[in-house]
């Protein structure tokens, strides 16, 4: 385990709200080594004492489930402060000059300064084995994201780059690998012979909520599908890793993305939908049309809803549609992986229309794993009836960011984003959308999306 965590942007919101509380939780549970150090780097003219006061205030506000002793213990044992401007190589090198061991450099910074910070780190003479954790979003568009990835590759070996995807730290998505590979029951049916289709869904009632500055130049395809949903697709479709070693986990995920079939121009029209919301109502809120939201440039034609149907063209999955769908200002909040199984091969009950069984739902919420199955009905045992087998998992512990920090410190990249392959999939789709080869549709805010969309609920 690496014993030095350097937080760049240590006095920012992410640090205060998530990173420091997660560290306090890990400290309380004895998960951090005794000589663990957290070096907060920020451009404010603070000393150790001022940073510690900031940390104490943050922990009081955001880590009240952790004891006061643990707050103080972490702060006194581990926290120190270095002033530096992350865009200035010399200032970064000076701030880190006392560190002789490998570090984890956590970039809790605005994306606009990721590139200069990485360049500064490249010149800072970090000890071999150091890692970098980089928050999303990666750049503001395809080009800047590519530039950023190129720079990261030039600076760190790929296995030292931890691109955060907090979707993958949430329980339903975290549980996919265990569910698939720690049971015997699912693996034999986890393939094209038994699975009819898979849906990976992220739907939000949230509209733009003042985020035009970021969202309008990004769009939901890049904000959600390009990173989060394609990563979830990897977990659902990957082959079993031979071990939990970093390489053994990465390879099968990358192979899934490589196996995703290119869409022909005709398939692009048939299998992709993009749309933006018009005015509507969600609960008791009147929602203006996206085009009328403050800060939106209507000429950009940014999509707020996207659905794409992909095929993972390999022996396990050929022919099975994987539907990835996401949207803003919709009628419900839903994060779900739904694996739809084929109907029973021989309808022994002789019903012309037996209830269609058969969906395994992994849902973001209090009942994260639900399996719909058919059983004999209680009145008539020969009349199949659909029931739900559900479960409630205990709350995640440590927190999502606690897991993420531990994984980065221990060098476990299994739930971090790794591949550039996802760009190969989304780029042609975005290009076709930009050229208007697929019409941009509209849907009323508060609805299920455009009426013409492919897979209705
Ligand atoms: N906050 C969240 O809830 C959250 C959740 C998930 C992901 N994220 C991601 O986390 C990252 C940080 O977000 P945030 O909300 O923490 O933003 P933030 O509150 O603006 O914090 C970023 C910090 O970076 C500092 N900074 C900017 N330029 C700097 C420079 N040249 N040298 C040194 N420090 C500099 C800023 O300093 P000043 O205070 O001096 O301006 C600021 O405190 C972003 O990539 C964001 O997408 C945030």
Mean pLDDT: 89
Q: Residue ranges: pLDDT <50 for 5 or more in a row? A: none
How would the global form be characterised? Answer: globular
Strand order of the largest sheet: 16-15-14-13-7-12-11-8-17
Total number of helices: 13
- Whole-angstrom Rg: 24 Å
How would you characterize the overall build of this protein?
The structure is a single chain. This protein has 457 residues and is α/β, with parallel strands linked by helices. The chain is 33% helix and 21% strand. The chain has 13 helices and 17 strands. It has helices at 13-28, 48-62, 68-78, 89-96, 114-122, 142-155, 171-181, 212-215, 219-237, 246-259, 265-271, 400-410, 421-434, and strands at 4-8, 37-42, 79-83, 104-107, 131-134, 161-163, 195-203, 272-278, 280-282, 285-287, 305-311, 321-327, 334-341, 359-363, 369-376, 384-391, 440-444. α2 runs antiparallel to α3 (68-78), α4 packs across α5 (114-122) and α9 packs across α10 (246-259). Bound molecules: NADP nicotinamide-adenine-dinucleotide phosphate. NADP nicotinamide-adenine-dinucleotide phosphate is lined by residues 9, 11-14, 17, 42-44, 85-87, 108-111, 113, 135-136.
Quick structural gist:
The chain is of the alpha/beta class and 457 residues long. The chain is built from 13 helices and 17 strands. A 9-stranded mixed beta sheet has the order 16-15-14-13-7-12-11-8-17. Strands 3-2-1-4-5-6 form a 6-stranded parallel beta sheet.
